[in-house]
Design goal:
9 helices; alpha/beta; transmembrane helix; 15-stranded parallel β-sheet; 13-stranded parallel β-sheet; 500 residues
Length: 500
């Protein structure tokens, strides 16, 4: 077997076992005098070394700063390492065998390496509640668990925690109220046969990344209810999950990557106000066999292109803000900002399509408006982009009724003043002229009314006699065209507001 310890003096084999049998006081006294020594229990069978309660008793043991080797050790029934301090150096439980409950609650791990790789835990709870891990790499890669695994209230400070390709046969993996300070988590390729992964009750994440790439939850869920997420990225690529509850209390400027994610049941993305800091939310090519809910106020466009779903997708409370940048100098000049990412138009088109499929007209209007903004100057011609700017300014793409209504009132009032100013008949002086200007302007703005034609002719005669002149004709045509546009926008807004 490869030597797993450093070159420091080593207490191992029968000598280490005999010292341990003498109890905690004798053990800790020896460690105080030999704190730099390695301790090697490799291959030791502790199955018959039980106290009166059937436990292998390591409660409160100190292990100094040398390496601690339990490689391929066998612990049989219950094992209790509660409140133990494993000091520094390496801690190796690789390929160890545990039976029954295993307790590491409130233990301290400041080791440069904590290795439980390929360890096998029997039926019973594995409890790391309240444990503290700092400044090292902690790996449970390829380990097997057959009961609940609890890290409730544990602390990981500058730690890389790895469960890659681990197997959880039954029971939950619980990180409730756990604190991750600049820690990285890796569940890539892990399998949960009959249990869930819980990050609930204000689990706090720092800036480290969390990886679920290719993880499989056959009959289990992933739950972030109430978690406080930092700036680290979260990767769900190609993961298979029964249900996903992504409902954190806070989130930083992270990226959520979930391409080809597959979820059998319900999926909930309810993002907090701080989600405005998100850099991306990508579920491209994901598959949702149950209802999907996506809520939040985002400053990015989530990518749900090529997704497959068989139940309703709720986007009614999803509000997005199109990221835009100032244009570069060129000809013809771009008269407004343009989309930062040219792909945002396609992303918004997919959001609009899903909203229309679910008869959510208001959400479809919001996404359609942003889609037009995203296409401006990129997919739309220069002249079309100018018209698009006007459409946006005067009606917010048919979502606003007040803007065209106010524009029509202003146009009518301005035209009234111009008609009065251009009057040539002396009978149009004073209030009479203003009244006739108002009648001419109103009748020209509302030509569809039955009285409009007669009122317009009478007002023209009163103001200009038999020949209004070219300027008045141009003014009337311009007012008529603009009035028609504003009336159309008012009608479009009413139609969109009261669409059934």
């Amino acid at each position: 077997m490869k030597d797993l310890s450093s070159k420091a003096p080593t207490l191992k084999g029968k000598e280490a076992l005999d010292l341990w049998r003498r109890g905690r006081e004798a053990w800790n006294s020896w460690v105080d005098q030999h704190s730099g020594w390695n301790v090697d229990f490799s291959g030791i069978d502790f199955s018959f070394e039980e106290d009166d309660f059937g436990l292998k008793y390591f409660v409160g043991y100190q292990f100094g700063d040398g390496d601690k080797i339990f490689h391929r050790a066998t612990f049989g029934g219950g094992t209790d390492f509660s409140r133990s301090n494993f000091g520094r150096g390496k801690l190796i439980f690789s390929e160890a065998r545990f039976g029954g409950g295993v307790l590491f609650n409130k233990a301290t791990f400041e080791n440069e390496k904590v290795d439980f790789s390929k360890a096998k835990f029997g039926k019973g709870k594995v409890d790391f509640s309240g444990a503290r891990f700092a400044d090292g790499k902690v790996t449970f890669s390829e380990s097997t668990f057959n009961g609940e695994v609890a890290f409730y209230g544990a602390t990981f400070d500058k730690v890389e925690l790895m469960f890659s390709h681990a197997t959880f046969e039954q029971g939950n993996l619980n990180f409730s109220s756990t604190t991750f300070e600049n820690a990285k988590l890796d569940f890539g390729g892990s399998t949960f046969d009959d249990g869930s992964l819980l990050f609930t009750e204000a689990t706090t994440f720092g800036n480290g990344n969390t990886n679920f790439y290719g993880a499989t939850f056959k009959n289990g869920d992933v739950n972030f209810d109430g978690a406080i997420l930092g700036d680290g990225n979260i990767n769900f690529r190609q993961a298979k999950i029964r249900e996903l509850h992504f409902t954190p209390k806070a989130i930083g400027s992270s990226r959520i990557q979930a391409e080809q994610l597959s979820i059998k049941g319900r999926t909930i993305f309810v993002l907090p106000p701080s989600a405005a800091k998100l850099k991306s939310l990508n579920v491209h090519s994901a598959s949702f066999e149950g209802p999907l809910t996506l809520r939040g106020d985002l400053s990015i466009i989530p990518d749900i292109r090529a997704t497959r779903y068989s139940h309703q997708v709720d986007l009614s409370d999803l509000n997005v803000k199109l990221p835009r940048i100032s244009p570069k100098l060129g000809w013809p000049p771009k008269l407004s900002r343009l989309a930062k990412d040219p792909k945002d138009a396609a992303r918004l088109r997919r959001l609009k399509e899903i909203a229309e499929t679910n008869k959510d007209h208001q959400a479809a209007l919001r996404f359609s408006a942003d889609e037009n903004r995203a296409k401006r100057w990129i997919e739309t011609s220069w002249f079309g982009s100018v018209l698009d700017m006007a459409f946006s300014a005067f009606s917010d793409y048919g979502q606003n009724i007040l803007r065209p209504f106010v524009a029509l009132i202003v146009l009518t009032a301005a035209s009234m003043g111009l008609y009065r100013t251009l009057a040539t008949e002396t009978s149009a002086d004073g209030w009479t002229g203003w009244a006739q200007g108002a009648v001419l302007s109103a009748s020209n703005s509302l030509p569809f009314l039955p009285q409009s034609r007669d009122l317009r002719e009478d007002a023209l005669t009163a103001l200009y006699g038999t020949d209004p002149g070219l300027c008045v004709d141009i003014l009337m045509i311009t007012q008529g065209v603009l009035s028609f546009v504003f009336l159309f926008l008012i009608g479009l807004g009413l139609r969109n507001r009261f669409r059934l």
